[in-house]
Design a protein that fits this description.
single chain, alpha/beta, Rossmann fold, Immunoglobulin-like, eleven-stranded mixed β-sheet, six-stranded parallel β-sheet, 17 helices, 29% helix, globular, binds beta-D-galactopyranose, binds zinc ion
């Protein structure tokens, strides 16, 4: 069943718009709206950093420019996401109320400047935000242009001020109730860290405590919850006046600070800001799959609901070491990739380049030259035309048979624990290895966390599930018992959610379902590989011209495990390489095991493996479960650079075929389609079947009836 489109059957297309920077040049503002129409833009995000223009002095408000802006946009048929301005505060506010300024972990209070650096606990800041938010809601809540709230901007970071310390202590009191309990759960007897009064607790700091992992974890949870509490405060200020306007907060790339699955529950729709490093990596699938995984995470945050691409750059960023330009076609391809993964919008940062200050050279649709007749402007107009043909896709869903567990709280814990690889556990990269293998077969993947429902999937893959959160192991057991396939790896089931190790053998509560016991884990120097050979059963992995006598390779981490009597070993560590200075003394121990449990199966992978291994493991899962690709046929591995993705409405399957390579490629189609972007001479959608050819950085969008 498809979703109700958030904003009707038209793709939103637009940008962040800052007319307040140009008020003394009215001709610029007039030209803006005309060019927006020319590019077929229908949405602008307005007011994101406008506080000082809206409230130039405490209690003195000036809405004249915003009135004029919204009216002008409305007159040209352009809708607005109206921002609350809390992402950057006016200088007068910081000067008069220093408590609004953030304090770092060493206790230093920030000076005025920058943005995104206020204390989210400060009652003064909350009060001032409330006043301006309410005024905006009262004034514009019924404005015909306004269709939603853009709360603040990219919430992030933490504050260590006395107000935040006090709130953190209260948070811990609520959670643990007694100090005995807290001391026990934090294992505070170690190094004489027993706390005897709540006031002794301080946020983690290099000047003080950083070694109590459970403290660090609770601090991360607290900062996420406290920022969310602030976001809810903002939301409630506007919702009290405009209960029907949907709210969002723009999220960031695999963001580490906050637990977005908790945040998602409090927002009406998800939006995010995507800035992939296209054209930098030799391997065209790397950044495409990385970005696809991020899009899939955003879609999965609210159970598959279509989402909004709130920011992206039409040409380049200006905050990386190198500001590589998107090659011709890439902006369109990247934008349609978002749509392919569930977005009902394409928006940029920014409409027009600033004239001064730090973002004057960041990509924009309108460059300093001031018109659309530029390479970037022309491609933006062409993209506007394309998106105008895709309105019927809004609300359609991406249906995933596979889920990847990528859990932020686990990420906090696994990165923090001093253990097998303090130079970085590469949790995200390890997850991406698996994601990419499915992506390369055109198989849709939901990216979920440990709190999500598993029962709707055929296959769940959960790499490095170091920390098992409350209830997760139970859900995994039920999922497998009822016929699901679960893939886990080394360094899983090690600790509970206060970072206390499971006793009685790893993977703790998952031992029974996995059918193995992980006794030790070895860490290898970068560049060192271990060889793994197929056991007779491993012949099931022979796809893509891999022979039973071939070897796979592992690196980084090697789990040393014992299989239970009823566990099959498909691949095992190979004999030592002669004269190795670090002998792989665990030759013969399992690398890949399979354990039948109830109606389902659990696979365990002991090491971080090479691509051939993941590709072939996915082939095995395809064979086992009849997994489908975006075209709706049995999945198979695509050529380098190609991708296939689908969205389903009640009537149609929309297939997105992308070429991320810098050369032409073709793909054979098994079904007959209509081309969503190209018309024949009669003006009907062009018929497409057989082999199609894709230009470099091209995306084709095709449809066929759902039951054809
Ligand atoms: C985003 C931010 C925008 C702009 C953009 C530049 O993170 O929300 O305001 O700074 O980066 O890439
Ligand atoms: Zn604070």
């Amino acid at each position: 069943m498809a979703f109700t489109p958030l904003f009707g059957h038209q793709m939103l297309y637009g940008a962040d718009y800052n007319p307040e920077q140009w008020l003394d040049m009215p001709e610029v503002l007039d030209a803006d709206v005309k060019m927006m129409q020319q590019a077929r833009c229908n949405i602008m995000s307005v007011g994101i950093f406008s506080w000082a223009k809206l409230e130039p002095e405490e209690g003195v408000f000036d809405f004249s420019w915003l009135d004029a802006t919204l009216d002008r946009l409305n007159a040209h048929g352009i809708k607005v996401f109206l921002a609350t301005p809390s992402g950057a505060r006016p200088a007068w506010l910081a000067q008069k109320y220093p408590e609004v300024l953030r304090v770092n972990e060493q206790g230093q209070r920030a000076l005025f400047g920058g943005r995104h650096n206020h204390c989210m606990t400060s009652p003064v800041y909350r009060e001032k935000v409330k006043i301006i938010n309410q005024k905006l809601a009262e004034r514009y809540g019924k404005h015909p242009a306004v269709i939603g709230w853009h709360l603040s901007n990219e919430y992030g970071g933490s504050c260590h001020c006395p107000l935040c310390q006090e709130k953190f202590r209260q948070y811990l009191k609520d959670k643990y109730q007694t100090l005995e309990n807290l001391n026990a759960r934090w294992w505070n007897t170690f190094w004489s860290h027993t706390i005897t009064d709540w006031s002794q607790i301080h946020s983690p700091s290099l000047l003080g405590e950083k070694a109590v992992h459970a403290l660090n974890l609770d601090w991360q949870r607290f900062t996420s919850d406290n920022a969310l509490d602030f976001c809810k405060w903002e939301r409630d200020c506007v919702k009290a006046i405009t209960p029907d306007l949907p709210v969002t907060a723009n999220f960031m790339e695999f963001f580490l600070d906050y637990d977005y699955f908790q945040w998602a529950k409090e927002l009406d729709f998800i939006s995010w800001d995507s800035y992939p490093q296209w054209h930098v990596f030799k391997d065209p699938d790397y950044i495409a799959s990385y970005t696809a995984m991020n899009h899939d995470l955003m879609r999965s945050l609210k159970g598959g609901q279509p989402w909004v691409l709130m920011e992206s750059t039409p040409s380049c960023t200006n905050w990386r070491e190198l500001s590589t330009l998107k090659r011709p076609g890439m902006n369109t391809l990247a934008s349609l990739q978002a749509v392919a993964h569930g977005a009902d919008s394409v928006q940029f940062f920014q409409w027009r380049k600033s004239r001064g200050s730090s973002e004057k050279f960041h990509g924009a649709i309108i460059d300093h030259v001031g018109h659309l007749d530029t390479r970037v402007g022309r491609e933006a107009c062409d993209l506007g035309l394309k998106l105008s043909k895709l309105g019927e896709i809004c609300g359609s869903e991406v249906k995933a048979e596979v889920a990847l567990v990528f859990d932020t709280q686990n990420r906090w814990a696994i990165d923090d624990a001093q253990g097998p690889r303090n130079k970085g556990m590469n949790y995200l990269e390890h997850c991406l290895d698996y994601y990419r293998a499915f992506y390369k077969c055109g198989i849709a993947v939901d990216v979920i966390d440990e709190t999500c429902d598993l029962s709707k999937y055929k296959v769940v893959v959960a790499p490095l599930t170091y920390m098992l959160r409350e209830g997760y192991a139970e859900r995994v057991k039920n999922f497998v018992a009822q016929g699901g396939t679960y893939v886990s790896t080394c360094w899983s089931g090690i600790v509970d959610d206060t970072d206390l190790c499971f006793l009685g053998g790893f993977p703790g509560p998952l031992r029974e379902v996995m059918g193995i016991w992980e006794e030790e884990i070895d860490s290898l120097e970068d560049g060192i590989e271990v060889y793994a050979k197929m056991e007779p059963k491993g012949a099931e992995l022979c796809f893509n011209s891999v022979e039973p006598s071939d070897i796979f390779k592992g690196h980084e981490l090697c789990g040393l495990v014992h299989p239970d009597a009823d566990t099959e070993v498909l691949v095992s560590y190979d004999v030592d390489q002669p004269q190795s200075y670090s002998p792989i003394f665990y030759a013969g121990m399992p690398v890949l095991t399979r354990h039948a449990y109830g109606q389902g199966k659990a696979y365990y992978v002991a090491s971080r493996m090479d691509r051939a291994f993941y590709d072939n493991l996915v082939q095995l899962l395809i064979a086992d479960h009849e997994l489908h690709n975006g075209c709706g046929q049995k999945a198979y591995r695509l050529a380098e650079g190609l991708s296939v993705t689908a969205r389903l409405s009640d009537n149609y399957r929309y297939v997105f075929i992308g070429n991320y390579a810098s050369y032409e490629q073709s793909l054979g189609l098994n079904f007959a389609y209509e081309d969503m972007l190209n018309e024949d001479e009669q003006g009907n959608k062009q018929a497409v079947s057989g082999a199609i050819t894709l230009k470099p950085f091209e995306m084709r969008v095709l449809r066929r009836p759902i039951n054809s």
